[in-house]
Amino acid sequence: MRRVTAPWVIQFIVAAMSILADRYRAEGDVVNLAERVIWAVNAGGDAHTDTHGIHYKKDPLEGKVGKASDYGMRLPILRSSPEDQVLYQTERYNEDTFGYEVPIRDEGEYILVMKFAEVYFAQSQQKVFDVRVNGHVVVKDLDIFDRVGHSTAHDEIIPFTIKRGKLSILGEVSTFNGKLNIEFIKGYYDNPKVCALYVMKGKPEDVPKLQPHPGLEKHEEDEEEEEDPEGGDETVKKIASQSQKNQVRSGPRTPNPYAADNSSLMFPILVAFGSSCVVLIR
């Protein structure tokens, strides 16, 4: 009896541990996220470590360029967890173009994530600006209120690649000298700004998504229906490009493995271990 049951118990334990490992692998990208981030700043605010383990440094432009604002601290920010709303409640703005410089040594695939929230204006066409990276316009005519509304988190996710001294970003290529220059360009409508930003190794799907925006998905579907399908290849490309951007900018929030109670997952392992002890004693 001992020879038959003991191996079965061992197999059961191994299977249970395999299930547990698979679950952690499915959610494990968030656990390793902090290790992939090479640079992060809480613009206009103090240092902060978010729920994904990303450590944002205090704004290095403090006292040098632009102005810091915590006007948003009086408002709750939709689509963001309570612990991380501070990343959208503070900001840095300037009456002229301003930016940040990020040193990057290694080649590979990277992601630039920029966080925004409109906490002052209550209508569109009040604050509109571009974002430029090493001379490439990566976000054109950003109107935060028009995108998501008031006091609502909005992320811009820009993938880029560095290889053999070249920067490839959104289909454009330029020489890379080891520094990523992120600029917020002064436009005709008010001043450019940013709430927080970081650079990480990886792909767009590796970036934690914001919580769903009520009504945003419906708005995007209506825009797609208004596109003329008879416009030829150029129209098709435009629709595909816009669809890809929408998929990157919004979506369900990535689960936080630290927030889950994993004691239930350990229960079958403990039961199996106790059963094996009883069998061996017999």
What features would you describe in this structure?
It is a single chain. By secondary structure, the chain is an alpha+beta fold. The chain has two domains: 32-210, Jelly Rolls (Sandwich); 214-249. The protein is 32% helix and 29% strand. The chain has helices at residues 2-31, 33-36, 86-89, 144-148, 216-226, 233-249, 263-281; strands at 37-42, 48-49, 55-58, 67-69, 91-93, 98-103, 108-116, 128-133, 136-142, 154-163, 166-169, 172-175, 179-189, 193-194, 196-201. The chain has an eight-stranded mixed sheet with strand order 2-3-1-15-7-10-11-12. Helix 1 packs antiparallel against helix 7 (263-281). The longest helix has 30 residues, at 2-31. The radius of gyration is 24 Å and the shape is globular.
State the name of the first-level CATH class of the largest domain.
Mainly Beta
Average pLDDT value?
80
| CATH homolog superfamily of the largest domain | Galactose-binding lectin
Number of structural domains: 2
| Strand/helix succession | HHEEEEHEEEEEHEEEEEEHHH
Write the CATH architecture name of the largest domain.
Sandwich
The SS-based structural class is: alpha+beta
Terminal residue distance: 9 Å
Spatial order of the strands forming the largest sheet: 2-3-1-15-7-10-11-12
Large-scale geometry:
globular
Summarize, please.
This protein has 282 residues and is an alpha+beta fold. 32% of the residues lie in helices and 29% in strands.
List keywords for this structure.
single chain; 282 residues; alpha+beta; Jelly Rolls; 2 domains; eight-stranded mixed sheet; four-stranded antiparallel sheet; 7 helices; globular
